[in-house]
Each structure stands twice: as C-alpha cells, then as structure tokens.
Amino acid sequence: MPPRIDSTLRVAVVFKDRCQPKRCHLECIKFCPPQRTGTEVIWIDPETAKATISEETCISCGICVRKCPFDAIRIIGLPEELKEDLVHQYGKNAFRLFRLPVPKKGSVIGLLGPNGIGKTTAVGILSGETAPNLGHYRRKKPHWDDVLEYFKGTELHDYLEKISAGQLKAAVKPQYVDRLSKVYSGKARNLLAKIDVGGRLDALREPLGLDSFLDRDIAQLSGGELQRVAIAATMLKDADVYFFDEPSSYLDIYQRLQVAKVIQGLAKEKYVVVVEHDLAVLDFLADTVYLMYGDEGAYGIIAEPRPVRTAINVYLGGYMKEENIRFRPREIRFESRPPRGDWRAETLVTFEGLTKRYEHFELTVQPGKLRKGEVVGVVGPNATGKTTFVRMLAGEETPTAGTVQGKWQVSYKPQYLESVYEGTVRELFLTAIGKKAESGYFETEILEPLKVRGMLERDVSTLSGGELQRVAIALCLGRDADIYLIDEPSAYLDSNQRMEAAKTIRRVMEREGRTGLIVDHDVYFIDMVSDSIMVFSGEPGRTGVGEGPFPMRDGMNRFLKMVGITFRRDADTNRPRINKLDSRLDREQKSSGEYYYAIEEAPTAS
Ligand code: ADP
Ligand code: ADP
Question: Atom 21 in ligand 1: which residue has the minimum CA distance?
Fold first, then answer.
C-alpha cells in the first residue's frame, strides 16, 4: 500500500508483461483527461509496442489505472525527499528501488518483503553483479565511480568500493534450485568437488545430509536434494560475501534448521545476506532484518534495519511506527492455545490400517478418518508416503492390505510445477476446469484472494515461481473433488501470500464441505491452514508411517517431538519462536511434552 503524502514524486509504472495494446481499446489514452484536451501523457511506444506515460504531464488522476482491462498501470505519489534515495530504475515507467541494506560481518542480515519488491535487485547490486544506475536509466552502462561518489560518507561506501573493485568476492545461491538440473549434468559429488578448492566439502556433508545422494546424478535429485547441493555449492566458493535466496524451499523443518545453523557459522567470518519467507526460520536464522515495502512490481523501499524479533513482529503487525507506514490493513495473529478439536462434522472417509508395498518402499497408515470441511495439515519428511496415501484414497492405488471405505475424487497440486502449458492463464483454467472458470464464485473466492485475476491474460510461460504457484493452487481449488491434496503450496510465495493462500484454502473447504490435505514444511503456514494434523514419519524412500489426523495440540506435539524442536511464545505478539536446542525452555518444554502451545492448565475444581 503506498504511503499517503501531499508533496509528490510521481511514479508511473506500466507492467510490460500485462500491457497488450492490440487486445484492448487503448482505454488509458482515450480516458486520460489532459490527453483529451491535447496534452500528450500516454502513447504507445513504437519500439516496445507498450503504453508509455509521461510522469511530467500526468496529473495522477488514476483514471488509466482503473480503466486498463489488464491492470497494467500504477500511478503512485511518493514523498519528494525519496528522490534522493533512488538507487536503481530499470527503465522509463519501470520498477524503482530506493535505498540499500548494509551487509555486516559477524551477523546474518535478512531481507523481508513481498515478491516483486526488489530483493533480487538489491542482491544483484550488493554482489557487485550490477552497478545501480541511480535512476539514470538511459545511460547504457552505469559506472561504479558515480555510485561510489553517491554513497560517499555512508556506511555502504567502503563495502561497495571493495565489491566493485573485486576486492570482495560474492557467491549467490539463486532462488530457483529446480533449474540446477537443467544446467549441470553428472554426479552431485563431481559438481561439488570442482568448486571445493578449499577442501571444505567434508565439513558440510553431515550438517547438510549430503551423503545419501552425493553419488546420484543431478538430474535425478528431488527439490530438497537440489536445494542442499545449491547451498553447499555456494558455501564452498571462496568468497567474502554470501547471499542465500530462499534457502528453505523444499526442505523439511529439521533440514531448514540444519541449514540455518551452517549459514550462521559462515556469518562468523563472512558477510551473509539471506532472503527467506518462512518466518519461523528467518527468526531463528537472521540477526538483523531489513523490511522492504512499496508496491509490488512498481517500487520498493528498504526500511531501517531492525533486530530480527522486532522486524518480524512489525511485519506481522502490518504497521511501521517509525516510518508511519501501514503495509497491511490487519495484523496477523497467532493463538497460543489450540483451536477446539471437538467440532462436529460429517465423516467423509474412514480408513482402516493400510499398507502399501512397492519394491523399495513400504507404507503403513494407522486407522483414521477425514471429515467434511476439515483442513488437515500433513507434516513429515519427503518420500515417506504422503502422496501414496492419497492415491489410495483416490482409488488410483490399491492397498496391499487394508481397505478404504469408498472412492474419492481427488484434486492434486503437485510439489514441483512446470509451466509447460502454451497459452494464457485464462485458457489454462478454461481447459482444466471448464465453465466453472468463468463463475463468480471462482473469481471472488479463489482468483481474487490469491491475486490471480491480474494474470489471466498472461502467457503461463511468463509467470514467476510465486505466480505459477498461485495459479496452480487456484486450479487445484477450482476443480470439483472431494479431497484436495495440495503439496507444498508455500514454495516461492512470500509470507503474506502464504497467509492469504492459507485463508483461501480454509474458506473453500469450509464453504464447499470438502476436505483438504495440505503438505507443507512452514510451521506458521501449517498453523494457519490446519484444523488437525496428520504426521508421517519413517526412513525416506524406504519406509513410511502415517498417523492421524490428530487435534492440533496432539499433532504438533507428535510432529515436533519427532524432529526435536520446541517453540516458545513471543511476549508481545504470541507468535511461536523456535527455542535454541538445549536452552532452558527447550528442556522444560520437552520434559512437559508441550512442544508448541502454551502449557495446558489443569482444570480447576469448582
Ligand atoms: P523480488 O526479488 O523482491 O521478487 P526483484 O528484484 O526480482 O524482486 O524485482 C523487482 C521488480 O523489478 C519486478 O517487478 C521485476 O519485474 C522488475 N525487474 C527485475 N529485473 C528487471 C529487468 N531486468 N528489467 C525490467 N524490470 C525488471
Ligand atoms: P511423499 O508424498 O511423502 O513425498 P510418496 O508417497 O510420493 O512420498 O513416495 C514414497 C516412496 O514411495 C518414494 O520413495 C517413492 O519413490 C515410492 N513410490 C511412490 N510411488 C511408487 C510406485 N508407483 N512404484 C514404486 N515406488 C513408488
């Protein structure tokens, strides 16, 4: 949400991927008041064939923003002083980044903000890969001398001087690890050995759990394995500054904390900057956090640094007091007590003890039942049989032993998404779910809260990871089914989108009386989305045991006991915070058996 201000620095942005002058009636030009009286404000650039807006002649009436059928325009007024802080602008009517974070040796610096707010842009600058243009986007190649002159006398000057001169070397772990398998071939061990000039691979094998797959081909690795290869490859590089963009996707909670510890160790001697949307992990991992706010895709501002606890509390609160900026209408709250688990709902599926045997894998599922309208959070390591269980419910797999009462239509969102579809998002929906894709229900209950509406006319192949994820969730929820199996919906979503996705999933299940099985590793997300918890355990790829669904308290306790992690509650906001292993609270909570919620008080006799 843009700040309200009186004196203005006008920012006009045209989203190039949305603007399609050939498919509209040029509403932006036709309805622009100054344009109608002869002042040129908006025109179609012959070179790019996209709308172009003059920030000088625009009067900020906002009519073009409302009239554009593709939601491709933003006109924003910012405080005039911000002009001084413009660090980078991608082009005319393009994204602008204001200010930069300052890396510090000895602490892990976190960047927290929505997708499209400039985190990757900031990382690109701080890693020395791109010299920022300070707003002079017409210059072919910005010069570092100008940048250093601009930052003279600031904390960042020395850092930028060294990084631009190559005296500081940077290593970056990119966000999309899925792509690794397309770039490299051969065994993971060979790839890492090539980078490991300092002989440090051995020290990473155990904490990152690399041994089980070092001798496999990169092409055969799962997302979680690729993530650990990418993290190891980055850490092995002989650098001074390390950037980790979303180190947690595809990893289970135990692995997330292992990675966090390794990164913290690195920060003792090096500069480390992380971008992370799993707030429980960021809280555990970072020391200092820069919140980023603005208008996604249009501009991003980096706020003052805050200690991690305060930063996350402010983020959840949605309001920055010092800056007087509200960036979310409501705060996000956590309950320190579990919801009542005894609500009544009709049973949808009953399953007895089930067994499924494959050549190398055996799954056992304890008896249980799923209720209509219930959202079950499914937790546990990958490859312990979660998908196999649901395939048995769908009748796609026959249990080796045991039976499922009935056969259920399942709508499934897989963990890994590939944008192989040729066509627009709207066409994809029409092909996959038919007429329902045009219903008011689909639009208001699914597309709007997931912010997919603005993407309808875009080609699926142009979507970013987070956009593709939201389209895939919408598609899954839009299909008619009894059970919705949604596998890792949080991957590539920013923290806010995760909460919106959780709410959307809950609402659809409740309203339609359906059952959701949501597999995810982000504990805050699981807390927000679930009515109950199903716990899978075992030895990944060999054996799996499924138990539950359990009420929240019981399910969280079983799950967290399995991974050996306890959460305390933040005194101000109630949000769960991971305890340090073996700290006083960790030990106390483990002995009382309360891993997540406040200790249950004994009922008082009255
Ligand atoms: P984040 O990492 O926070 O998701 P990015 O830094 O990747 O954000 O991008 C911020 C905005 O800048 C996005 O809207 C993106 O489309 C835009 N952007 C990124 N790279 C370019 C580029 N080379 N040219 C034009 N716009 C770009
Ligand atoms: P999860 O959903 O927990 O990641 P899955 O149910 O997908 O786990 O898989 C559990 C194990 O079963 C994996 O090791 C997988 O390779 C194996 N598996 C799944 N389907 C088959 C099959 N049709 N044939 C043989 N093995 C399979």
Answer: 90
Cis peptide before 3 (omega within 30 of 0): no
pLDDT at residue 378 tops 50: yes
What one-character DSSP code corresponds to residue 360? Answer: S
pLDDT digits (tens, 9 = 90+) for 182-191: 888 899 999 9
For residue 14, report the distance from its CA to the centre of ligand 1, in Å: 13
Q: Is 441 in the pocket of ligand 2 (CB under 6 A)?
A: no
415 pocket-lining for ligand 2 (C-beta < 6 Å): no
Mapped onto helix, strand or coil, the DSSP state of residue 90 is coil
* Amino acid in the structure at residue 125: I
On the CB side of 501, CA atoms within 13 Å amount to 33
Instruction: Read off the pLDDT of residues 171-215 as tens digits, 9 standing for 90 and up.
Output: 999 888 888 888 888 999 999 999 998 899 999 999 999 998 999
Residue identifier of the C-alpha nearest atom 26 of ligand 1: 90
The residue whose CA is least distant from atom 22 of ligand 2 is 358
The amino acid present at 111, given as its one-letter code, is L
Distance CA 513, CA 519 (A): 19
The amino acid present at 502, given as its one-letter code, is: A
Q: Is the CB of 356 under 6 A from ligand 2?
A: no
Q: Going by C-beta distance under 8 Å and a sequence separation of 6 or more, which residues neighbour residue 55?
A: 10, 11, 12
